[in-house]
Amino acid sequence: MLEYWDIYDVHRQKQSGILKRGVTVPEGAYHMVVHCCLFNTNGEMLIQQRQPFKQGWSNLWDITVGGSALAGETSQMAMSREMAEEIGFHYDFKNKRPHMTIQFEGGFDDIYLLIQDVALDSLQLQPEEVQAVGYASEAEILHMIEEGIFIPYYPSFIQMLFAMAKTTHLGMISKLEEK
């Protein structure tokens, strides 16, 4: 299936025209990517293993879900769609804001954090994308990165995700101000 993306400027304002997936994003243009890290109440992250035939990071483990927003989608719509497509988990992100946005060459990556106990056997994996899922602690993911079996995210990024998941209601603050 061909994918088309909306084009944004550096200020994240939608521009006219669309990009076809696989075409180099022109200089000064950007597209939107979304990721969600789903944590259980034990503080473990749901991770997925990419299919061996998947282009880019094939066979490696990754954070819960991620993908590009399609033309016409908001960040929230894209996140809901990606969760449903990749792991069969239905969650409405309509009234959610990303916990952070990371800028990369050619795009914006909205990252959502979700705390919810989800049974692995309740998930339906997309066979074109995902071969397995499981829960992993911060230490396990960092070890998997060292072993070369997890996408090589910066360890500090993984540590930040876990730290933020413990205090999602506080944002960047680690505890409430004492009065």
From TrEMBL:
<feature type="domain" description="Nudix hydrolase">
    <location>
        <begin position="29"/>
        <end position="158"/>
    </location>
</feature>
<keyword id="KW-0378">Hydrolase</keyword>
<dbReference type="Pfam" id="PF00293">
    <property type="entry name" value="NUDIX"/>
</dbReference>
<dbReference type="InterPro" id="IPR015797">
    <property type="entry name" value="NUDIX_hydrolase-like_dom_sf"/>
</dbReference>
<dbReference type="GO" id="GO:0016787">
    <property type="term" value="F:hydrolase activity"/>
</dbReference>
<dbReference type="InterPro" id="IPR000086">
    <property type="entry name" value="NUDIX_hydrolase_dom"/>
</dbReference>
<protein>
    <submittedName>
        <fullName>NUDIX domain-containing protein</fullName>
    </submittedName>
</protein>
<dbReference type="InterPro" id="IPR020084">
    <property type="entry name" value="NUDIX_hydrolase_CS"/>
</dbReference>
